[in-house]
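yo, Protoporphyrinogen oxidase is done. seq:
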Amino acid sequence: MVSFLVGYGSTEGQTAKISERIVDVLEGRGHTAIAVSVDDVPPAATPAEFDAILVGSSIHLGKHAKNVYQFVRENREVLEDRPNAFFQVSLSSAVGDEARQAEAASYIDEFVEKTGWHPERIALFGGALRYSEYGFITRLMMKRIAKEATGDTDTSRDYEYTDWDEVEAFAADFASLVETGDVSADGETEGTEA
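structure:
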């Protein structure tokens, strides 16, 4: 049995929801796992207490969550010392065109450059539009962004773009990596492209 920490930064709740689904997959494989906002990692459960760590961040207005940057910078050595993965949740990842996919990838590049952390596994998931939870200004701004990205501008309803099969496959793949111990002595994942 392996212990997993899924630390996340979630602006409107979709990254938290994805983190909980990842925990479900990991626990379904017989492991212990906890999903917690990087702001709320309890002192008794520091990242160093876990065998493997996944970090997730939402993209809001083109930026990763600041608290995720801080968490990674403060725990980079611990992250690099054990199996690790990063997942990003954005509206750009919900759209199949090349320009939006390139935009989503550029967020990852910027994150890696700013933190110096090179995750062993990376996943990009579509997020959600929570019009029902936005204030007036945010609703207008998100409607404008959605018009270009997805065309979903009916603010009387919410939209979810997360491919849950993709989330579960990512979690299972990462668990398999950890279970097989397919990690070299320097912490690098064998045969992995990040």
